[in-house]
């Protein structure tokens, strides 16, 4: 913290946050290529669903999905205790717990130990995914925040891609290292994340909320791009701290002393509405059907499209590469196009892909199978552009500081419980109703379009403190008003000029 300032510090923060989410992505994808491996199925024959295996698809779904239950409770832990511990401690504790879970999985010789290992690893990952986006957002400047989170989530997809290729490479190993090495590798990424957070600063907004103003002032100076040429006692920094403190005071008054109870009330600052927007974004991400593909890509290629295991693993690897490359696109356009447009683009594209996927899998010919594979690749493209990073960004952006830790944790908990639902039912659904599985995911994506259009405000380029103005009063503004001043500068923006602009979308919220 004392050595790095300015751009190097910002890149170190983004890299460390990215390392934590690389671990998240790796965890998401690593089991998909292990489930049909010879060493894995001989060690765990109870969940061998390959041809003639006789294993239970229901138990297989549970073993894979129980990880999400651990993640859910990790997020709930942060909901209850995260604000007290702080951002850095939550992440470091999460890394330690995840490493223990990874070690248990890698050493498993039976289903019970594998289940325990996945739950424990999930607890750690739930803590990390609840806290890392908030920590990252609170250390970023307004015009860099969206781009920074997109980089973080692109690294997540690099983790997914890495897991696919490691699974593919290890599929040629005939002994138990075939699955034990990929599972143990999680520990390396956890160690890197732990060490990174250990030497990087705490969130200045958390420090101010806990009356540690001098530390916060130093960190706000250090993360300025031109920190090396900026006086730490500059009046601009003092004013920024006082503005954040004023916002904290106003939010505490609105919370009436209880960040828990206030989350479920719609007072002057619409805490409930803002919490539900974050929860809804994560809900949409999971019910889009992305983890149907992430967790079970090789299984889908084999069972729905009908190609060999080796080719399925190879295609899953190339799908991971395409997914990663697609995830780079929003890094360059999120601060130009904004959150709303990208989410609408993704939902529309995903609905179309699921509809075509259902039709081609139902038809069943070789040509239709090729089209189905293309749809799987194309679905990942739409998702990566619009629904990969933004649902992780919005809970931290929409929620005011007074409830940010709890609101982000609740949103993350919703992500994991719906991930569990999708991962649990997917193998059963594919075995039972086949192509119809893709129909209901297509319907979900179509439903997201009006939900995003009518309820989700645009936060592009806005400081975290200025986002409060969108929710102040009786109406929620879906766009920033030019008459309020500079959306990204807490020093120059003003709530003066409350007059309505022509074309500004608003919605009524019942208090």
UniProtKB/TrEMBL annotation:
Keyword Transferase appears in the UniProt entry: no
One GO CC term, this protein: membrane
Alphabetic keyword roster: Membrane, Transmembrane, Transmembrane helix, Transport
Ranges for domain Major facilitator superfamily (MFS) profile: 13-460
Spans traversing the lipid bilayer: 64-83, 90-109, 115-137, 149-166, 181-200, 271-293, 313-335, 342-362, 368-395, 407-426, 438-456
Membrane topology: Multi-pass membrane protein
Location(s), subcellular: Membrane
Entry-linked Pfam families: Sugar_tr (PF00083)
Superkingdom of origin: Eukaryota
Primary subcellular site in the record, as a coarse category: membrane
GO function terms (MF aspect): carbohydrate:proton symporter activity
InterPro entries, per the entry: MFS_dom (IPR020846), MFS_sugar_transport-like (IPR005828), MFS_Sugar_Transporters (IPR050360), MFS_trans_sf (IPR036259), Sugar/inositol_transpt (IPR003663)
Family under the similarity heading: Belongs to the major facilitator superfamily. Sugar transporter (TC 2.A.1.1) family.
Protein name: General substrate transporter
């Amino acid at each position: 913290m004392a050595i790095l300032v300015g751009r190097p510090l910002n890149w170190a923060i983004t890299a460390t946050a990215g390392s934590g989410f690389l671990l998240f992505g790796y965890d998401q994808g690593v089991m998909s290529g292990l489930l049909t491996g010879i060493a894995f199925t001989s060690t765990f024959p109870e969940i061998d669903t390959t041809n003639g295996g006789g294993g239970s698809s229901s138990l297989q779904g549970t073993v894979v999905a129980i990880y999400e239950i651990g993640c859910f409770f990790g997020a709930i832990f942060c909901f209850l205790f995260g604000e007290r511990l702080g951002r850095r401690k939550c992440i470091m504790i999460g890394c330690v717990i995840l490493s223990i879970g990874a070690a248990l999985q890698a050493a498993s010789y039976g289903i019970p130990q594998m289940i325990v290992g996945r739950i424990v690893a999930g607890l750690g990952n739930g803590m990390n995914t609840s806290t890392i986006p908030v920590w990252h957002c609170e250390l970023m400047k307004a015009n860099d925040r969206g781009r920074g989170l997109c980089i973080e989530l692109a690294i997540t997809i690099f983790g997914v891609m890495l897991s696919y290729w490691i699974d593919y490479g290890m599929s040629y190993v005939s002994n138990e290292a075939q699955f034990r090495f990929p599972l143990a590798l999680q520990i390396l990424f956890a160690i890197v994340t732990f060490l990174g957070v250990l030497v990087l600063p705490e969130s200045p907004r958390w420090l101010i909320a806990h009356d540690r103003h001098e530390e916060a002032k130093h960190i706000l100076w250090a993360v300025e791009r031109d920190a090396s040429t900026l006086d730490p006692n500059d009046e601009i920094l003092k004013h920024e701290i006082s503005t954040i403190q004023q916002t904290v005071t106003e939010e505490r008054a609105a919370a009436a002393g209880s960040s828990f109870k206030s989350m479920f009330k719609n007072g002057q600052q619409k805490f409930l509405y803002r919490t539900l927007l974050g929860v809804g974004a994560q809900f949409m991400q999971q019910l889009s059907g992305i983890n149907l593909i992430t967790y079970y890509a090789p299984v889908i290629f084999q069972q729905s499209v009908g190609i060999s295991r080796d080719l399925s693993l190879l295609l899953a690897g190339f799908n991971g590469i395409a997914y990663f490359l697609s995830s780079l696109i929003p890094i360059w356009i999120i601060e130009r196009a904004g959150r709303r447009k990208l989410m609408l683009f993704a939902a529309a594209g995903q609905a179309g892909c699921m509809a075509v996927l259902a039709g081609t899998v139902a038809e069943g010919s070789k040509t239709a199978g090729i089209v189905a594979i293309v749809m799987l690749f194309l679905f990942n493209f739409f998702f990566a552009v619009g629904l990969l990073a933004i649902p992780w960004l919005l809970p931290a952006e929409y929620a005011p500081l007074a409830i940010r830790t709890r609101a982000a944790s609740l949103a993350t908990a919703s992500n994991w419980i719906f991930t569990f639902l999708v991962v649990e039912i997917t193998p059963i659904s594919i075995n039972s109703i086949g192509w119809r599985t893709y129909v209901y995911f297509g319907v979900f994506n179509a439903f997201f379009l009006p939900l995003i259009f009518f309820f989700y405000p645009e936060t592009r380029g806005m400081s975290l403190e200025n986002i409060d103005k969108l929710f102040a009063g009786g109406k929620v503004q879906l766009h920033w008003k030019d008459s309020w001043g500079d959306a990204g500068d807490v020093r120059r923006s003003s709530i003066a000029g409350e007059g309505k602009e022509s074309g500004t979308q608003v919605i009524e919220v019942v208090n």
